[in-house]
Amino acid sequence: MKKIIVITILLAGNILHLFAQEQIWSLNDCMLYAVENSPRVKQKIYQADNYVADELSALGAFLPSIGAGTNAEFSYGRSLTEDNTYQNVSSLYNSYYMQASLSLFTGGQLINQWKQAQVNRKMGKSEEQLAKDELAMNTMQAYMDVIYHQEMIRIAIEKLEESSRNLIQTQRMEDLGLKSKADVAQIEAQVAGDDYFLTQQENLYNTSLLKLKELMNYPYDEPLYLDTTVMRDHYLPEPESVEEIYEYAEEFNPQALAAKYQLKSSQYQYRMAKGRFFPTISMSAGVTSNYYKPFSTPGVDPFHDQFKNKMGEYFSFSLSFPLFDRFGRFTNLRKSRNNMRIAAEHQTEILRQIQNAIEQNVLDRNGYAKEIVQMEKQVKANDMAYQLTLRKYEEGLMSSLDLQTSSYNLLQSRSNLLQRRLMYLIKDKVVDYYKGIPLIENK
User: Pick from 174, 248, 280, 371: CA 20 to 30 A from residue 421's CA?
Assistant: First the structure.
């Protein structure tokens, strides 16, 4: 009895602290916090940004590359003069150049590289959203586990209080000679069992809360109070077509999109591998000039005159044929073709998994809705049976074992009803997700 009072005081203190701090975490709050603070999601965000950078790089490959440079050379001793003769002279040679080059034909590699970069950018966004959705689903499951064990603690407290009152009543009836020591011992065993059940639920609650904080990347030493009003009264879903949900998910679900873009990316990679068998054509153009001054020869033209007089321009085309690179191109082509086939099989597998997930979640949700209706009736029936058994037990018409059995049946039915209500919420949320309704409502 003292333990019940202590737990009640602690719960009351937590509630007062909860309202004082105004930190009530809803399911949406927890999922949003988890997504915003997840290291794994941040990794996907950075990876998606890399894909954006790759697209910019692929676009820049169509533009000419321009470079400029200069060098200075001091010579001592015998050196080659402008007259192509050797003399013992010290001199300064300074050259300048600016050039531009442009690839004209690369076997389609540039255009396919650009298209692949575009697809990879879309794939990066899909993988980022998929990581957010997976984390949100795991957080939702952990959130419901905490709510379940929190509610089970409340039920366990009520049951322990009830069995403690029954123990006091039985002890009084024993003093009056209406009950035996065996009845008292049986009720004492029930109180001990209820006390153990309460302790077990407290441990499970702490474990589930720790798991939720881990998924949210929430500080372990800070309290986390959850909104327990998540359950609803209506559990009758509207009839829905699994085929229509799948048709939408096939086109817009992040997991399906990631598999689709992965296949397209591998196709462009395969095209680039084939393009390496074609010759490449490029062009280049530039200007050059230089300045030469022997230190032992007076009257050298000044820098400006030499730079202007020695300036030259050039324009060139180059054509290269790949002949033999030790089977490198053939190996790359074969691996690219296999990767494309692997991506196609992966997409088929993912779409099948999505279809199975939709069918299973719709069946589970509808099944839980029906079970909730039956379990509500069972809870009412077990509650009436327990009250009747308790009254007959007090009148001496029922044994303590009958009372314990009736109490256990009521506890089991209340636990099953709570579990199915929470599971219905999870399945309903997942079905809505495949229908295109976001898991998280951004604030």
Answer: 248
By CB atoms closer than 10 A (0-12, 13-18, 19+), residue 303 is exposed
Distance (Å, rounded) from C-alpha 427 to C-alpha 182? 47
Nearest residue to 32 (alpha-carbon basis) of 232, 231, 217? 217
pLDDT reading at 59 higher than 50:
yes
Q: Are 155 and 200 in contact (CB under 8 A)?
A: no
For the cut 70, the answer to whether the pLDDT of residue 250 exceeds it is yes
Bridge partner list, 320: 280
Q: Of all residues in the chain, what percent carry a pLDDT higher than 90?
A: 71
CA–CA distances in Å: residue 243 to residues 145, 248, 253, 355, 430: 31, 9, 14, 9, 16
416 vs 408: CA distance, rounded Å: 12
CA distance 304 to 307: 5
DSSP 63-112: SPEEEEEEEEEEE-SEEE-TTS-EEE--EEEEEEEEEEEEEEESTTHHHH
pLDDT in tens, 100-113: 999 999 999 999 99
* Ranges assigned E (strand) in 241-310: 280-294
Per-residue confidence (pLDDT) for residue 232, from 0 to 100 = 63
Q: Are 196 and 147 in contact (CB under 8 A)?
A: no
List the alpha helices (DSSP H) in 276-327: 303-309
Q: Is the pLDDT of residue 20 over 50?
A: no
DSSP classification of residue 284: E
Residues 19, 22, 23, 26, Cα dihedral to 10°: 90
Judged against a pLDDT cut of 70, whether residue 15 lies above it is answered with no
pLDDT at 111: 96
Dist CA 376 CA 385 (whole Å): 14
Count of residues for the chain? 443
* Pairwise CA distance, residues 296 & 30, whole Å: 83
Instruction: Assign 211 a pLDDT band (cuts: 50, 70, 90).
Output: very high
